């Protein structure tokens, strides 16, 4: 029974991390209609910025805030300098550029920060909580991760459902020509979308690094699992991203705990194939996919 509880709690924490990354993918897709494969190295860069500040003697929270601010700036700059020139071209052009960014940012991080493994501090304790004299697999840092992702989810749902800016961002992504005719500053909305997505991505990078080792490739595997989580819930739905992340995290945790860790990647692939076969738009899709 204890193993079951610990496996579920470990999956919950892991799923929350996947959900944070999936939220960044969903945010940028909803606001720009682009899948950003460079989200992971962008988050990695900002995590190293936080680590550099912390190593310089400043508090964890100053580094945390600096990473989020760096993500905001980095996302805006990338949209303006790299993505903007292909804004009116086919969407595949921007996707290919994000793949190029993936490689470029990896190389830059290796040059600037080095390839060695470095320890990243945790905001709170890493010891499992005591419940009834038994240590369970849920730490204070894990609780912080869960709360942080829940807050981000609520903010994103509020942004897209109840604010004028959220409506303008979605209009700019779906039909920029009509949005311009209605007075929407489409360029600014796309920049804002990239900037906010980079902030959420930076948060996911910090949560993943918490209490572990970081290096330029430490988030590479998260690209795969975060993308599966986003597709599982639906690239249009922030709620779906969280549900997809939690579902994936719990599923992979049970596979690892009871069948073997070597089957985790295969299980993720099977889950992705099953969802794309039965419901291509994701579990929270609200409209049927259009065929051209």
Sheet having the most strands:
2 strands, antiparallel
Task: Please state the overall shape, judged from the principal axes of the Cα atoms.
Answer: globular
Number of domains: 1
E-strand count: 4
- Helix-strand category: mainly alpha
Q: Nearest-angstrom radius of gyration?
A: 19 Å
Straight-line distance between termini:
51 Å
Number of helices: 11
CATH architecture: Orthogonal Bundle
State the CATH topology.
ABC transporter involved in vitamin B12 uptake, BtuC
Share of residues in helices: over 70%
Elements, N to C (H/E): HHHHEEEHHHHEHHH
Spatial arrangement of strands, main beta sheet:
1-4
| Highest CATH level, the class | Mainly Alpha
Mean pLDDT: 86
Low-confidence stretches: 288-292
Give a description of the structure.
There is one protein chain. The chain has 292 residues and is an all-alpha fold. It has one domain: ABC transporter involved in vitamin B12 uptake, BtuC. The chain is built from eleven helices and four strands, in the order H-H-H-H-E-E-E-H-H-H-H-E-H-H-H. The protein has helices at 2-32, 39-55, 60-83, 91-113, 140-162, 164-174, 176-181, 186-209, 220-233, 238-258, 264-278; strands at 118-119, 130-131, 134-135, 213-214. The chain has a two-stranded antiparallel sheet with strand order 1-4. Strands 2-3 form a two-stranded antiparallel sheet. The longest helix has 31 residues, at 2-32. The protein is globular, with a radius of gyration of 19 Å. Residues 288-292 have low confidence and may be disordered.
């Amino acid at each position: 029974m204890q193993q079951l509880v610990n496996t579920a709690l470990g999956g919950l924490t892991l799923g929350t991390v996947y959900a944070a990354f999936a939220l960044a993918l969903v945010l940028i897709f909803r606001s720009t209609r682009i899948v950003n494969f460079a989200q992971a190295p962008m988050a990695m860069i900002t995590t190293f910025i936080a680590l550099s500040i912390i190593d310089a003697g400043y508090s964890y929270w100053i580094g945390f805030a600096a990473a989020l601010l760096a993500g905001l700036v980095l996302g805006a700059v990338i949209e303006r300098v790299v993505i903007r020139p292909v804004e009116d071209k086919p969407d595949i052009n921007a996707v290919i550029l994000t793949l190029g960014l993936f490689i470029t940012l990896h190389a830059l991080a290796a040059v600037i920060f080095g390839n060695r493994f470095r320890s990243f501090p945790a905001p709170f304790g890493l010891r499992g909580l005591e419940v009834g004299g038994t240590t369970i697999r849920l730490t204070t840092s894990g609780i912080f991760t869960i709360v942080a992702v829940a807050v981000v989810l609520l903010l994103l749902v509020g942004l897209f459902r109840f604010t004028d800016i959220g409506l303008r961002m979605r209009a700019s992504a779906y039909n920029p020509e009509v949005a311009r005719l209605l007075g929407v500053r489409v360029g600014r909305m796309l920049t804002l979308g990239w900037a906010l997505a980079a902030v959420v991505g930076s948060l996911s990078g910090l949560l993943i690094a918490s209490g572990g080792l970081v290096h330029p490739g430490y988030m590479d595997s998260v690209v795969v699992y975060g993308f599966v989580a986003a597709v599982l819930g639906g690239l249009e739905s922030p709620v779906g991203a969280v549900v997809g992340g939690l579902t994936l995290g719990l599923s992979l945790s049970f596979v690892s705990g009871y069948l073997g860790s070597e089957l985790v990647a295969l299980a993720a692939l099977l889950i992705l194939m099953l969802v794309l076969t039965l419901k291509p738009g994701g579990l929270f899709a609200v409209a049927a996919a259009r065929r051209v």
